[in-house]
């Protein structure tokens, strides 16, 4: 499922970034109309979109509930991933104090147990002919 979501995301990014052919055809704005759109008109359109999105939960409460649960799951996963990275970087990247370095060096030697020192199993001896 995540593969499909990632694929859809990257395809949409590519479609937004890459130019798809020459002049725009159909009912879209031509070059003169695109040039006449100023920042204030774009800001007003963005404000209208945001105000419409604010009332979305009133119109679709079920979709809002599912979306908030999905957002909670994603934030929990991100928090756990960040904690794992922080633990990894904290243990690997922490500067070693002299006492810590000495204990690490001492614990790094002779760590085999008596069971580890036994020879491995070799199977039954082959009969001599």
Automatic annotation (TrEMBL):
UniProt xrefs under InterPro entries: DUF5330
Region (Disordered): 93-129
Biased composition regions of type Low complexity, renumbered to the chain: 94-107
Any Pfam family the entry gives: DUF5330
The protein's name in its UniProt record: DUF5330 domain-containing protein
The species this protein was found in: Methylopila capsulata
């Amino acid at each position: 499922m995540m593969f499909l979501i990632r694929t859809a995301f990257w395809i949409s990014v590519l479609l937004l970034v890459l130019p798809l052919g020459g002049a725009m055809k159909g009912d879209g704005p031509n070059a003169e109309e695109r040039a006449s759109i100023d920042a204030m008109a774009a800001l007003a359109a963005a404000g209208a979109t945001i105000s419409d999105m604010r009332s979305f939960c009133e119109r679709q409460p079920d979709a809002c509930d599912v979306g908030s649960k999905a957002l909670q799951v994603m934030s929990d996963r991100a928090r756990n991933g960040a904690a794992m990275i922080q633990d990894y970087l904290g243990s690997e990247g922490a500067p070693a104090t002299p006492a810590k370095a000495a204990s690490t060096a001492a614990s790094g030697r002779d760590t085999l147990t008596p069971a580890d020192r036994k020879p491995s199993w070799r199977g039954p001896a082959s009969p001599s002919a």
